[in-house]
Amino acid sequence: HGKLFLAITKNPGQIQEGYKTTEINLYVLPNEQAATKVATLQLGITGRFALNCVDNMIVVHHQNSKTSMLFDICWNTTATESSNILSLTTSRTPALKIPNFNLKSEGGITVFRPILQPMSISPFVWEGKQCELYSSTWVVFQPGIIIDAKQGLLWELKLSVSKLSMHMVCSKPSLIKLLLHRRNYKHTIFSTLRSLILTQSTPLSVLGDIFDILNSVIDDVLITQEEMREEVFSPLLNKEELDPNYKTSVIIEYIRSLRLHKLRISYYYYEIVIQILLRCNALFKLHQLVQFQVLGDSAPLACLLLSLDKSYEPAFMLGIDMLKRLNDTSGIIEALLRKNDVTAAIKYACSFDKEDSLDAQKFLQSAADSGDNALFYSTYRFFVSRNERVRKCTEFTKEEGVEEFVALYQSLFHEI
Question: What global pTM score does this model have?
Answer without folding.
Answer: 0.70
